[in-house]
Every structure is written in C-alpha cells, then in structure tokens.
Amino acid sequence: MGILSWIVMGLIAGAIAKFLMPGNDPGGFIITIIIGIVGAVLGGFIATTLGLGDVTGFNIRSLLIAIGGSVVLLVVWRAIKARR
C-alpha cells in the first residue's frame, strides 16, 4: 500500500478506535490520525507475526486489523498518560 492509503486507512481506523473507546484524549484530530496510522502498522505487524495474514490493501480485513492495532495503541497511550 502507498503512503496515501496508509494515511486514509489510519484516519478511518483511528476514528473508529476513538469511537469504540471514547474518552478525554489530548491532541484531537491530528493525534487521532497518528494513532490510526501507527495502530495500522502495529496491527499489521501483530497479525503477520501471529500468522493471521498481512495488510494487503484497502479491504475489510486490513481495516479490521488496523482498527485492532489502533485500539491496542490507544489502550497503551491511556495507560502511559494515566501514570503521569
């Protein structure tokens, strides 16, 4: 996938992850995009490592993997922010 596809999928995955886990997170729209993009990469890495396949393009399976990675990243982000 190209960089533009990652950004679009990251935006969608980040928004859905934020919808699934509402809360008061700093940063707003930009942080949501960054969490989505990094979460998509993280989800792809975890899925590939576990043998569930990899992110092959802009499809439902790849989107679900990206959302899962974004949710994991959002949980970690909130745990780090809670310690401070």
Sum this structure up briefly.
With 84 residues, the chain is mainly α. The chain has helices at 3-20, 28-49, 60-83.
Task: Write up this protein.
This protein is mostly helical and 84 residues long. It has one domain. 76% of the residues lie in helices and 0% in strands. The protein is built from three helices and no strands. α1 crosses α3. The longest helix has 24 residues. The chain is globular.
How are the SSEs placed, and which strands pair?
Blueprint: H1 3-20, H2 28-49, H3 60-83
Helix pairs in contact: 1-2, 1-3, 2-3
Strand-residue fraction? under 5%
Integer tally of domains: 1
> Measured on Cα atoms, how large is the radius of gyration?
12 Å
Structural class, please?
mainly alpha
Mean pLDDT: 77
Strand count: 0
- Count of helices? 3
Helix content: over 70%
N-C termini distance: 37 Å
Q: Which parts are unreliable, with pLDDT below 50 for 5 consecutive residues or more?
A: none
Task: Fill in the keyword field for this structure.
single chain; 84 residues; mainly alpha
